[in-house]
Amino acid sequence: MIILEGKELTRRYIRGKYGTDALSQVSFTLEKGETLGIVGESGSGKSTLLRLISGLEAPDSGTLALMGTPLSPVRSREEYRHIQMVFQDAAGSFHPRRQIAASIRESVRNLTGREPDLPALCAMVGLAPELLDRYPRELSGGQCQRLAIARALGAEPEVLLCDEITSALDVSTQAQILNLLADLCRSRDLSVILVSHDLAVVSCLCTRVMVLRGGRVVEEGPVREILDHPREEYTKQLRASVLER
Ligand SMILES: Nc1ncnc2c1ncn2[C@@H]1O[C@H](COP(=O)(O)OP(=O)(O)O)[C@@H](O)[C@H]1O
Ligand SMILES: [Mg+2]
């Protein structure tokens, strides 16, 4: 079953007399329970695509549909709730002068109109509930990212958008967060769009991948096919630049 579908999404940013075509005619489908990877060099439009999908920004043209129903240009609370996003800068996504519990409670209340079960959310991401009383600066990067995932799950979304969520973490913490995400996908049948510049991350978590360049889809398909036997020169270069490091 297709849970989310984007058709010919286009977004142009205009600054003074200059314009950037951040995204041009990008179409995709996301199956229920699937993890779709989005890769591409810096500036290729990955974050722009997630901002459009999450409703943080509206496309200039193109459409999005969730479970076959078009998403309205101005999202309803229910539509927001269904598509949650986790960012690279987890600490920065929490209010600096508020305890984590308060931030999560406010977000879940706003999106669902209900009180979150905070200890259950902590358990879901493998953390002790004591951490909820802390401020963002009192947490490690990995703990913050787990709590950001907990906040997103508190909305009981259909789709989780992950934008470089392990890029700011050290290698061992990265692996733990990726394992957590893989477990959550399996146990909760979550549908995920995972943006990463790291092809190793994408190849271990995703079934399908889409390659972006200059705001356009260069190629897409099963992750093994695309990453092991890229047809496009650009994908080969992406792969080589990761292997060099
Ligand atoms: N708010 C904005 N104003 C102007 N240009 C932007 C804005 N956001 C992104 N861009 C431009 O759009 C292009 C795509 O950016 P982005 O989606 O952030 O790429 P990625 O996440 O793949 O690195 C880049 O050229 C970037 O400079
Ligand atoms: Mg980005």
Question: Could you characterize what this model shows?
Answer:
The structure is a single chain. About 40% of the residues lie in helices and about 30% in strands. It is built from 9 helices and 10 strands. Helix 5 packs parallel to helix 6 (about 170-190). The longest helix is centred in the last third of the chain and has 18 residues, at about 170-190. The structure holds adenosine-5'-diphosphate (ADP) and magnesium ion. Magnesium ion (MG) binds near residues 46 and 47. The site of adenosine-5'-diphosphate has 12 residues, from strand 1, strand 2 and helix 1.
> Strand-residue fraction?
25-35%
Strand order of the largest sheet: 6-7-8-3-9-10
Average predicted local confidence, pLDDT? 95
CATH architecture: 3-Layer(aba) Sandwich
Ions and ligands: adenosine-5'-diphosphate, magnesium ion
CA gyration radius, whole angstroms? 18 Å
Q: What order do the SSEs take from the amino end to the carboxyl end, as H and E? A: EEEHEEHEHHHEHEHEEHH
User: How much helix is in the residues?
Assistant: 25-40%
CATH H level: which superfamily? P-loop containing nucleotide triphosphate hydrolases
* CATH-derived topology: Rossmann fold
Overall 3D form: globular
In the CATH scheme, the class would be Alpha Beta
Defining traits:
binds magnesium ion, alpha/beta, Rossmann fold, six-stranded mixed sheet, binds adenosine-5'-diphosphate, four-stranded antiparallel sheet, 245 residues
